[in-house]
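Continuing from the previous page of notes. For each protein in this section, the sequence appears first, followed by its structure tokens. Read the first protein now.
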Amino acid sequence: MGSLEAERTTVGWAARDPSGVLSPYTYPLRDTGPDDVYIKVHYCGLCHSDLHQIKNDLGMSNYPMVPGHEVVGEVLEVGSNVTRFEVGEIVGAGLLVGCCKTCSACESDVENYCSKKIWSYNDVYVDGRPTQGGFAETMIVEQKFVVKIPEGMEPEQVAPLLCAGVTVYSPLAHFGLKKSGLRGGILGLGGVGHMGVKIAKALGHHITVISSSDKKKKEALEDLGADSYLVSSDSSSMQEAADSLDYIIDTVPVGHPLEPYLSLLKLDGKLILMGVINTPLQFVSPMVMLGRKSITGSFIGSMKETEEMLQFWKEKGLSSMIEIVNMDYINTAVERLEKNDVRYRFVVDVKGSKLDQ
């Protein structure tokens, strides 16, 4: 055990209170254990769930908090048991950094559903220390929660895939929705929604983007390649589209009615919830019963699904639509994300930022 003076530290940008304002923060990092990978962060995406956490929207935030869970970086050091990664390799890390490894979810390789999972930040690690995220110079992550980045993929492009990308890919894979020819809906065209359009189109699906206004119609159809666009407040268009979709990926992160969207589903259609919402959602049961429809949810994806999704993304030649910013812009980026003023994901150039000022 080293002395306090010799303890490894790093610099990140942390929120100190529910204002969510981030500023430089120096904190200790554990030494690289036998199963650990020590990573120099190059890029980290900004996700809507980061906003929920730094602003204590869910009432569970602990401060100081360094957010960020779409991490791409370079391996600086590996533990003695690590065989999959080498120093100098570019790797990724996502929302989880720990799990129990013994429950049915862990044994089924869906550790994202482990009841004892450890979040990459705003949680407590097995050593009793608070976890801190990717808006930082360096991180220590157990090898199980580190993924290889396929050769040739640009690191800044990969960052949003480690949460937003796998969040969409996982339910499509799990619910048998990868076959071509399906008709899908993407409700909400933000960071996750734009990934949904890209992945579903690459699977050969006919995709309808559903939004509350026609503000994003041009970009949905022309930039992202959606097949049609539906404004949810246009009752006649919604009526015409009734019983037309096999599934809807609902990415909206605030309370909203479900019934208008349930009406769009075919027999046995699925409404898949992905937005983190802290208020109850309501619907009348016949909307589900009379079409044997399902309201379900999905949470990020497993490590296996993450690696599978990255390979799929590379093979299909897809690209993320991102805006790269430096860390000194992060508080403005947070304000803009709150207003949905980003197309479609902020990615912080951590490596190119001065973190200590």
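Done with the first. The second protein uses the same format. Note its length before scrolling.
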Amino acid sequence: MSSDFRTLFDPQTCTRKGLCPITDIRNKGNPLESHSLYFEQHGSGPEKIIFIMGLNSSSFAWLPQVKHLSRIPEYSVLVFDNRGVGNSGTPKGPYTTSAMAEDAIALLDYLGFTEPRSIHVVGLSLGGMISQELAFRIPERIISLTLGVTTAGGHIWNNFPPWKGFNALIRMMFIKDPSQKIPILLDLLYTSPWIDEKAADDPKGRTNREVEFESYARRLEITRPQTLVGALSQMCAGLTHHVSAQRLRHISKSIPKVTIATGDHDHLVSPHNTVYLKTHMEEAEVVIFKDTGHALHYQRPREVNAMLERVFKEGRERVGV
């Protein structure tokens, strides 16, 4: 039962949640590939947003965005756990970003998010790669596409993150103790000056490191532990991802509003990938967050939320409805 799943999100804003039977929708009977996607929808406004999270992170990582947007009447916010993480199933791997995009499309179909120019798509990191594949498949449904801290991919040897990022990912994969795992994660995702500064608006006067440690500890506490198969299979999806320049141009021309966002100090997806995306997505807007790391939606939540609201508005204006 979906009610049995613990959540970080506010139940007061939740309008529906559950498991989407991906395998049944696709009419595939192979039990090794059988899986469902866990999802939550918050709010019931006419502007529908689907958020697609990155490598080995559950939908709970969207907390700053769901908390903000779900309280604004015009939005319906959809978040879900990708295959291989959180409350979703873990089919046999390795995974691909195209297959994970097909999962997301099946979820949209299941929930009735099928009308032309009816959804805003937001993807970060691996979620941005999945979003590219999704956008190539159903551009006619999309009003706006926001690609954050992501890449078009290419040859597998070019898809590896910078050494600091790759080394941290491998170390964390085999560490179970949160007290050892979280410090590695924080130094990977955030800029070193910011993480040790006093947190803005924290009544306890803590540093960002203390606030974020507590936040990640809470997420790990209530999230179902990820299997090694799930972690490695998602990593394979990132390493094998590739959207060609021709497909990028098609996406950019087919969607009313495209925005590419990055931090300027990213240890997982180098900012030069944003430059490449822009080169082949001429119509796209580029937003660079200064002194910001990979987890820009946590490090700069107000700025990111404001950017998203603006992008949604501009996309809707371009559709003219």
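What the second structure shows: The CA atoms of residues 50 and 144 lie 11 Å apart. The longest strand covers residues 14-20. We return to this in next week's lecture.
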